[in-house]
TrEMBL record:
Keywords of this entry: Membrane, Transmembrane, Transmembrane helix, Transport
Cellular component annotations (GO), alphabetically ordered: membrane
Domain of life the protein comes from: Bacteria
Transmembrane as UniProt keyword: yes
SUPFAM superfamilies named in the record: SNF-like
Transmembrane intervals: 39-64, 88-117, 137-158, 170-189, 214-237, 249-274, 311-332, 352-371, 378-402, 422-444
Protein name: Sodium-dependent transporter
Stored InterPro entries: Na/ntran_symport (IPR000175), SNS_sf (IPR037272), YocR/YhdH-like (IPR047218)
PANTHER family: TRANSPORTER
Amino acid sequence: MSARGEFSSRLGFVLAAAGSAVGLGNVWGFPTQVASNGGAAFVFVYIILAFALAYPVLMAEFVIGRASRSNMVDALGKIGGTAGKASGIWGCITVSLILAFYSLVAGVMTAFCLSSLSQLFGQAEWASWLMQDMGDGAAIVRNILFCGLFMVLTVLIVSGGVKDGIERWSVRLMPALLAIIVLLILYVMTQDGAMTGLKNYLLPDFSKVMNADLLLSAMGQAFFSMSLGVGTMLVYGSYVSKSEKLSTLGASVALVDIGVAILAGLLIIPAMYVAAHNGVVIFNDAGELIAGPSLIFAVLPALFDTMGAAGSFVAFAFFALMIIAAVTSSISMLEVPVAYVVENKGVNRKKAVWIIAAIIYFCSIVIALNFDDLFGLVIALTTQYSQPLLGLMLCIFLGWVWKRDKVLAELKQGDEQVESSLFWKIWPWYVRFVCPIVIIFMFYRSL
């Protein structure tokens, strides 16, 4: 094993990388996009685009990471010189800002989870304080406090390193996440209104398949749901053994991510229609299903309130699920700048983790204190603008700057027959031409 750490098993890597990809967006973003864009037709398009767009970029990150055996800044610097290093630093800043707002949201999830426990023990006043709306000025103290608690949880895992921290907890948390989703699906399906939601989710409206907005939404969901562009997959790839077949590992990660997104849809959409059956408003003024933070912070808590005694137990399980999804993503985000500071600046890992986490937490506090002005702005700047441009840079470095024979040599280390495979015949050309064009198109449309 290398001194810088390495995943000890294939399963450990797949669950860690899939955990990075599986985050809060899978639970609140994917299901409502499905419901608003032709049901199963969107799922069909999403699966195709996940492998046609996201998987090639995912593979680019894995190959660059394993070949360089280094952090994002040094990895891209070896390929692209000064431009590569600048892109790596840009990626570290972007992922840190994403973690700053992400940990705020995850902190609120933690508070909501504890609120359901407070309800069970009859602590109504404490439960009410914990359940304040995230954007309410009175909730600032709650937001900052629980953001800090979530950040400490992330720090404790990342401090353990690759094998004893990230891998150990990913192998435990991902099965727990899947188990909770399945149990919640089974429970929700017993409720009145669930079958209406299930039909809405599973019955395709193929007339919408070629709709430009549907295609753009599916491309965006496929790209962003796999944590691409900000270096998480590149850094995780740098911890993979040279004997592993990267194309198979990449496909496994993509399949787990897609599978969890589809399972989340099986939970969320029927749950929303159960809420509607119980008198909760689930459509906005435009007649579309409520999505995003409003779904998690308003619609589903209102649903749990209508479930009587069982509501607190269901709420606890659901928000525990959200916390697990958040943690598996947050540890990969924190690892990106940590790997750079440890390897490039020679700082002790535990010291680096605490220093960087403290800086990110300070950014979270600034966002919390200026919530109305900064929260949406930071999300837009990082996920809508910075992330696709970083993905574009990765495609350019691998497809145009890095020599093709070196890319092949890296892939051959875990798969001697890769040169004659369909993957090698398509992938390099695809990353070089198709992915950049599609990403540029997505970025243009997002403007």
